[in-house]
Amino acid sequence: MSHPSAELQATIVSTLSSDPAVTGLLGGPKIFDHVPERARFPYLTLGRTAVMDWSTGTEDGHEHLLTLHVWARGGSKGETYEIMDKVSTKLHDASLPLDGHRLVNLQLQFAEARQEPESPTYHGILRFRAVTEPIA
């Protein structure tokens, strides 16, 4: 059984990559852990992940804070907001399958969009909180 955070990230990538609304806005399944050279905007990257023990006296569990980054270039933040909206709509309160674990919940906790300093690049940040528990 793999680590629940690795399972969760793989399922998120698979879920977003197979969603026509998300891939339509990105111009394909451009969701990366490591951005390839010459990647065309817009795209989505996996960012920082923190995992904390969420066990109780009787059950094991993990709390995950996952950050997704939207990268776009254009004349306004509109494209970034639109991608952020589709991603958050797809993931917030989603019931995603995990191998060896159960996703208890997945909630959007924070969203921000900004233009990078001295750059035409817009950066959207989405932070999700998830709780997982192992399947007995």
How many discrete structural domains? 1
Strand order of the largest sheet: 1-2-3-5-4
CATH class: Alpha Beta
**Total count of strands:** 5
Write down the overall mean pLDDT: 94
Number of helices, where a helix is a run of at least 4 consecutive DSSP H or I residues: 3
Fraction of residues in helices? 25-40%
Please name the CATH architecture.
Answer: 2-Layer Sandwich
Protein described:
- By secondary structure, the chain is an alpha+beta fold.
- The chain has a single domain, classed as STM4215-like (2-Layer Sandwich).
- It is built from 3 helices and 5 strands, in the order ααβββαββ.
- The protein has helices at 4-17, 20-26, 78-91, and strands at residues 31-32, 43-53, 62-73, 101-115, 121-134.
- The chain has a 5-stranded mixed beta sheet.
- The model has no long low-confidence stretch (mean pLDDT 94).
- It comes from Aureimonas populi.
- This is DUF3168 domain-containing protein.
- Pfam families: Tail_completion_gp17.
